[in-house]
C-alpha cells in the first residue's frame, strides 16, 4: 500500500471537486505550498469532480447555477457541449493554472487519531499525518437506494441516477422514474422521447416554483439546511427545500402529461410495482432518482456522528473535532456554497495551525 511511508503535512484536502479546489486555492493564497504544506487527494481518474460522471445528455446549457471557482472565471463555454466535458476541462485548467498538484487516483480508506495530536490519513498511496483535514468528498459516491418489499424479485432492470446513461438507453421500454427532485424531472423529460411509456412516482407531491429565486429565499433555504447540520442531523440538499423551477420545458412536459405524478407504490413485483389499492403498473426499468448521501464513511474512526446520524458542523468545523472541516456538506453543497466554504475552512485552519505547535 505505501509508496513513501508516513508523510507529515499541515493540511490534507480530500476531494478535488468545487469545494476541494476552492480550499486548495485559498491554502495557496494563505502561503501554504502544495506537496510541501498541504496535499489534495482525489479518487477520480481525472479532473472534474463528480461532473465527469454526469450523463452525456446533460449539456452545459442545462446546468443551473454553476459558479466559477475563485480566481478564474469559466467563460465562453458551449451550451451544447456535455457538462462533463466543459467542467472537466475547466477544472483541469484551474488545477494547472494555480499549480495545485492534485494526487489522483488516490483512495482514502480511513482517517483516525494519529500520534502527537495529528490525524492519520490512510490512503492507497501511503499515510499522511496531518494537523488539519479539509474533507470535500461530496455525495456522488453514495447513491441512495430505498428498499421496498419485493425489490429483489423484479425481472427488469433497476438503476440509479449515478448510472444514468442518457435517454437512448430506454428506447421502446416502459420506465418508472422514482424521485421528485431535479434529476428525476430531467430524466423523465428526456426518457419520454424514447421510451414506450413513462411513469413518475414520488413520496410527496412535487412543489413547482414560479418566477426567479430571490436572494432572500436562497438565504432562507440555506438556513433550513444549516439548522439540520447544526443539530447533528443528516443534511438535506438545498434543492430539496427550494422546490422545482417552473421553466418552459417543465411547463411543456406538464401540459403533455409527462409530469403527471403518481404516489409512492407499496411494493415491487416481478413485472412492475403495486399500490395499496391493488392497482399495478408493468415496467421494464425502474430508475431511482432518489438522491445521494454524504460520502464520509472514511471519517468513521473519528466518531464524529451525532445520535441523529449526521456530523454536527458549525461554519465548516466539526464540533467534535476542531481539526476536521467539512466543505460541500449540507448548506455548502451548492457550487457557490462550496466556494465560500473553502475560503471559510482555510481561514479557520490557518488560525488552528498558528496555535498548534509544530
Can you characterise this structure?
The chain has 358 residues and is an alpha/beta fold. It is 23% helix and 22% strand. It has helices at 18-29, 83-97, 182-191, 215-230, 248-255, 335-355; strands spanning 6-14, 38-41, 108-113, 119-123, 126-135, 157-160, 174-178, 197-202, 208-209, 244-245, 261-263, 267-269, 272-274, 280-282, 285-288, 313-314, 317-318, 321-326. The strands form four sheets. Strands 1, 2, 3, 4, 5, 16, 17 and 18 form an eight-stranded mixed sheet that branches. The chain has a five-stranded parallel sheet with strand order 6-15-7-8-11, with helices on one face. Strand 1, helix 1 and strand 2 (38-41) form a beta-alpha-beta unit. Helix 1 packs across helix 6. The model has no long low-confidence stretch (mean pLDDT 90).
The total of helices stands at 6
Report the C-alpha radius of gyration, rounded. Answer: 22 Å
Q: Name the structural class.
A: alpha/beta
Q: Total number of β-strand segments?
A: 18
Low-pLDDT ranges: none
The outline comes out as globular
Mean pLDDT: 90
Topology order in helix (H) and strand (E) letters: EHEHEEEEEHEEHEHEEEEEEEEH
Helix content: 10-25%
How far apart lie the N and C ends?
A: 27 Å
Largest sheet geometry: 8 strands, mixed
> Strand share of the residues?
15-25%
Amino acid at each position: 500500500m505505501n509508496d513513501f511511508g508516513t508523510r507529515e503535512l499541515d493540511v490534507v484536502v480530500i476531494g478535488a471537486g468545487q469545494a476541494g479546489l476552492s480550499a486548495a486555492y485559498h491554502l495557496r493564497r494563505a502561503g501554504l505550498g502544495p506537496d510541501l504544506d498541504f496535499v489534495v487527494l482525489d479518487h477520480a481518474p481525472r479532473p472534474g469532480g463528480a461532473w465527469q460522471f454526469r450523463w452525456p445528455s446533460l449539456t452545459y446549457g442545462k446546468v443551473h447555477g454553476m459558479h466559477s471557482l475563485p480566481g478564474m472565471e469559466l467563460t465562453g463555454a458551449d451550451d451544447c457541449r456535455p457538462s462533463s466535458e466543459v467542467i472537466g476541462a475547466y477544472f483541469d485548467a484551474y488545477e494547472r493554472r494555480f499549480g495545485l498538484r492534485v494526487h489522483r487516483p488516490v483512495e482514502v480508506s480511513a482517517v483516525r487519531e494519529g500520534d502527537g495530536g495529528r490525524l492519520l490519513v490512510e490512503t492507497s498511496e501511503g499515510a499522511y499525518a496531518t494537523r488539519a483535514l479539509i474533507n470535500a468528498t461530496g455525495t456522488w459516491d453514495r447513491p441512495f437506494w430505498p428498499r421496498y418489499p419485493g425489490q429483489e424479485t423484479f425481472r427488469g432492470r433497476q438503476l440509479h441516477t449515478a448510472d444514468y446513461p442518457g435517454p437512448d438507453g430506454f428506447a421502446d421500454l416502459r420506465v418508472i422514474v422514482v424521485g421528485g427532485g431535479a434529476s428525476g424531472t430531467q430524466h423523465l423529460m428526456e426518457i419520454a422521447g424514447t421510451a414506450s411509456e413513462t411513469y413518475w412516482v414520488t413520496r410527496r407531491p412535487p412543489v413547482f416554483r414560479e418566477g426567479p429565486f430571490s436572494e432572500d429565499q436562497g438565504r432562507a433555504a440555506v438556513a433550513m439546511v444549516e439548522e439540520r447540520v447544526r443539530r447533528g442531523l443528516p443534511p438535506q440538499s438545498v434543492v430539496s427545500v427550494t422546490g422545482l423551477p417552473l421553466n418552459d420545458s417543465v411547463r411543456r412536459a406538464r401540459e403533455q402529461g409527462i409530469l403527471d405524478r403518481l404516489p409512492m407504490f407499496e411494493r415491487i413485483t416481478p413485472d412492475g410495482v403495486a399500490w395499496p389499492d391493488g392497482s399495478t403498473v408493468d415496467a421494464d426499468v425502474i430508475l431511482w432518482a432518489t438522491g445521494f448521501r454524504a460520502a464520509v464513511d472514511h471519517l468513521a474512526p473519528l466518531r464524529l456522528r451525532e445520535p441523529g446520524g449526521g456530523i454536527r458542523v458549525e461554519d465548516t468545523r466539526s464540533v467534535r473535532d476542531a481539526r476536521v472541516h467539512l466543505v460541500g456538506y449540507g448548506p455548502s453543497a451548492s457550487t457557490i456554497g462550496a466556494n465560500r466554504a473553502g475560503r471559510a475552512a482555510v481561514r479557520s485552519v490557518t488560525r488552528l495551525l498558528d496555535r498548534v505547535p509544530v
